[in-house]
């Protein structure tokens, strides 16, 4: 991120625009939404801008240094590169932040596309990379954010002191959520701003008599990494969580979706390195939920697949804390989708095994004869290190060395890699991978072009 978004207070600030034509007018339209003191300097000023006096101070000549004393922002908006550069220099000398319109490199800041529901303002920027995209996002937001939002936020803001009667934390948040999600929009639709104020009084009275909410834990499946593979329910719960306790497999893009105020706790382990001991994870959940927090225990893939879910739910049962599980996309499903294959297929395999290559005692034992049967399909989790062991067992139980194998590393993530192998080449191929990978025994990637062959690995 080259440009850091901030909201600048222009209430007592002076803004100078060099230029009196269309370009200047476009910036003026935005700046007029603020309370800034605005000066326009130009030898020629279009009538549309002239009409804005006295809200805008007009100076009928090019910008001079004396115009810029104390200016916070300076826009060079003449459309003439040489003149804009001169204004930019003067602006810098005066210690102001300068924007040269349509010249990213010469600008200290850029003006984002704006969706205005004052005091709710959404600013959209693409660092100049894709103005078309910014406009598209703006159009989408214009459609989804109701026009009443600004009024609701203004009324809500004026009511904040009253709401402080509720204890800070979950109860106060529940009050505001009920206001913005339901009571506020409903009252506004029925009777405008006046009804909203009445609805707020009523809602506060209701919330003041309610007892403190009880904490609980949601076991939320984060999916294999792509945030779009999360369920709507998972997104919603993550958005509401007070505390998020997550594994290493949960990607930063997904953690970004948590509330900004949420406490985020990582309990993941790196490869075979040390991890937070299981009892400590139980204690963390019990401690936070016990204090009334809404805890999201966020697990990679599907929470119920090789995720020690039962141990955690039993610990919560023991502590009398309610919980629920939100299912999700397990990495085997994601891996199968990315190689364009079905996990089961009529005439090929009527069962599907999900196995882990090692358990707490070491390499895990399996029904090797079943796994080695022709046509069998098995998704092996945590299998990279055990690849040679698995290969040995399968060959011993009669599997063909040319049994197809697909390895999918970082499934659904931008750095996803698909490797096409056979049982014979499995250990060499697995050794190339660094990220989390699922081994799909009995399946070959359908899209050959996406895969890495043994020759490429050897190079
Ligand atoms: N609950 C998870 C599995 C946890 S066990 C799920 O349902 O997917 C950890 C193993 O999952 C890793 O060793 C790897 O085999 C697999 N895994 C998790 N995320 C993955 C991803 N994005 N791509 C490939 N494999 C992944």
Write up this protein.
The protein has 459 residues and is an alpha/beta fold. The chain folds into four domains: 14-111, 3-Layer(aba) Sandwich (Rossmann fold); 149-209, no CATH class; 216-329, Cobalt-precorrin-4 Transmethylase, domain 1, CATH 3.40.1010.10; 332-458, 2-Layer Sandwich (Methyltransferase, Cobalt-precorrin-4 Transmethylase, Domain 2), CATH 3.30.950. Helices cover 36% and strands 20% of the residues. The chain is built from 16 helices and 20 strands. It has helices at residues 22-31, 47-50, 81-93, 131-144, 149-158, 160-163, 170-209, 232-240, 252-255, 278-290, 309-319, 331-338, 368-372, 387-396, 426-431, 454-458; strands spanning 14-18, 37-41, 56-59, 71-76, 97-100, 113-117, 120-124, 216-221, 243-246, 263-266, 294-299, 323-326, 352-356, 358-359, 362-363, 377-381, 404-409, 417-422, 437-441, 451-452. A six-stranded mixed beta sheet has the order 13-16-19-17-18-20. Strand 14 (358-359) and strand 15 form a beta hairpin. Helix 5 (149-158) crosses helix 7. The chain starts with 13 loop residues before the first strand and ends with a helix. The structure holds S-adenosyl-L-homocysteine. S-adenosyl-L-homocysteine binds at residues 224-225, 249, 299-302, 305-307, 330-331, 335, 381-382, 408-413, 436-438. Pathway: Porphyrin-containing compound metabolism; siroheme biosynthesis; precorrin-2 from uroporphyrinogen III: step 1/1; Porphyrin-containing compound metabolism; siroheme biosynthesis; sirohydrochlorin from precorrin-2: step 1/1. InterPro entries: 4pyrrol_Mease, 4pyrrol_Methylase_sf, 4pyrrole_Mease_sub1, 4pyrrole_Mease_sub2, CobA/CysG_C, NAD(P)-bd_dom_sf, Siro_Cobalamin_biosynth, Sirohaem_synth. It catalyses: precorrin-2 + NAD(+) = sirohydrochlorin + NADH + 2 H(+).
């Amino acid at each position: 991120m080259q440009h850091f978004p901030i909201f600048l207070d222009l209430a007592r600030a002076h803004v100078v625009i060099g230029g009196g034509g269309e370009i200047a007018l476009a910036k003026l339209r935005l700046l007029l939404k603020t309370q800034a003191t605005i000066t326009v300097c130009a030898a020629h000023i279009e009538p549309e801008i002239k009409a804005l006096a006295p809200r805008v101070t007009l100076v009928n000549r090019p910008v001079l240094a004396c115009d810029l004393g104390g200016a916070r922002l300076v826009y060079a908006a003449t459309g003439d590169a040489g003149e804009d550069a001169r204004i930019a220099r003067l602006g810098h000398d005066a210690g102001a932040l300068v924007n040269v319109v349509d010249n990213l490199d010469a600008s200290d800041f850029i003006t984002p596309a704006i969706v205005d529901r004052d005091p709710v303002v959404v600013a959209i920027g693409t660092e100049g990379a894709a103005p078309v995209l910014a406009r598209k996002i703006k159009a989408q937001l214009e459609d989804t954010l109701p026009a009443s939002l600004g009024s609701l936020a203004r009324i809500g803001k004026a009511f904040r002191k009253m709401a402080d009667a509720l204890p800070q934390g979950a109860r106060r948040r529940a009050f505001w959520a009920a206001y913005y999600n339901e009571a506020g929009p409903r009252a506004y639709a029925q009777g405008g701003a006046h009804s909203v104020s009445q609805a707020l009084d009523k809602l506060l009275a209701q919330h003041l008599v309610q007892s403190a909410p009880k904490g609980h834990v949601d076991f939320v499946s984060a999916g294999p990494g792509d945030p779009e593979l999360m369920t709507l329910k998972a997104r919603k719960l993550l958005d509401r969580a007070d505390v998020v306790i997550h594994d290493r497999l949960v990607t930063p893009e997904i953690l970004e979706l948590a509330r900004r105020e949420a406490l985020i706790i990582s309990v993941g382990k790196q490869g075979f390195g040390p991890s937070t001991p299981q009892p400590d994870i139980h204690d963390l959940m019990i401690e936070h939920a016990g204090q009334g927090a809404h805890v999201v225990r966020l697990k990679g893939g599907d929470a119920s697949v090789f995720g020690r879910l039962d141990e955690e739910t039993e610990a919560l049962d023991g502590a009398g804390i309610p919980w629920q599980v939100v299912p999700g996309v397990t990495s085997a499903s994601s891996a199968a989708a990315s190689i364009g294959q079905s996990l089961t297929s009529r005439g090929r395999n009527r069962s599907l095994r999900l196995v882990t290559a090692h358990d707490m005692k070491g390499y895990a034992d399996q029904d090797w004869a079943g796994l080695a049967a022709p046509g069998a399909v098995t998704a092996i989790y945590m299998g990279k290190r055990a690849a040679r062991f698995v290969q040995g067992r399968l060959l011993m139980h009669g599997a063909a060395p040319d049994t197809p194998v697909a390895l999918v590393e970082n499934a659904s993530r931008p750095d996803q890699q698909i490797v096409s192998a056979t049982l014979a080449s499995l250990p060499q191929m697995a050794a190339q991978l660094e990220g989390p990978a699922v081994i799909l025994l009995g399946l070959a990637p359908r899209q050959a072009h996406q895969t890495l062959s043994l020759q490429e690995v050897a190079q």
